User: Fold this.
Amino acid sequence: MQLALIDGPHGYPFPDLEYYYFYPLIVPGGLLLLDDIKIPSVRRMFDIIRADDMFDLLEIVDRNTAFFRRSKAPLLDPQSDSWWLQGYNRAYYENTGARSRSRRVLASLASITPKAVKERIPLRVKKLL
Assistant:
C-alpha cells in the first residue's frame, strides 16, 4: 500500500485500531497521513508513531495533519509483545532496569525450555532475544 489516511472515529481506541490494520500494509516509501492530531487520543498515537523507527515524520500541515513516510526499518510484529523495541518505550526500557530483569527472565525460561521447542524458534526471534 502506498498511502493510508487515518481520519475516522477519533475516540480511543478507534484510531489505534485503524493504525493496527494499516501499518503492516504500508510499503517502505509509502505515506501515512494522520489527521486531527490536536485531539488527545490521536495526539498520543502521533507521539508513538513519531518515535517509531518504522516511520519518518515529513511534515505537519496546519498544525493538525501529520505526514509520515514508511522507512525501511523492520515492521514491529503485530502478533508479538515486543514493546521494548518501540521508540516510544525505548527510554523507559533502558532506564528502569527492565532490560536486566528481562534478561534474567529469558535466561530462566531458556533453562527450562525443551530442546525441541528451542529448535522451532525462528532465528529472527532468537536474535531479538
